[in-house]
Design a protein that fits this description.
Elements (H helix, E strand, L loop, with lengths): L13 E6 L10 H18 L2 E7 L3 E7 L29
Antiparallel strand pairs: 1-3, 2-3
């Protein structure tokens, strides 16, 4: 069953949870978490999203983030996700 659409207000913090595939491990080595934080910081700068807090667990991540607008690519369930002009780095060499 799909989750209900989230209400997003401009410049309002959002709690995001990212889980590993099938709730598997996201971070096996410390360098995995270090690389994730570097990519997150780059994406934050490109997209203009404020990251207030984060928690990296072995199989998931909690983020408290504020997208600049409700149509931000960082906004979940937004139409902008499909046509995001902000591209986050996802090259395999980054990991």
């Amino acid at each position: 069953m799909a989750r209900p659409t989230r209400l997003l207000l401009p410049e309002t913090p959002v709690h995001e949870i990212q889980r590993g595939n099938n709730r598997g491990a996201c971070f096996v080595h410390r360098r995995d978490a270090t690389n994730y934080l570097a990519i997150l910081d780059e994406a934050r700068q490109i997209c203009g999203v404020a990251i207030h807090a984060y928690v990296l667990m072995t199989n998931h991540v909690h983020l408290l983030a504020t997208p600049p607008t409700t149509t931000s690519p960082a906004a979940p369930n937004s139409a902008a996700n499909a046509t995001a002009t902000c591209s986050t780095p996802t090259s395999p060499t980054a990991w």
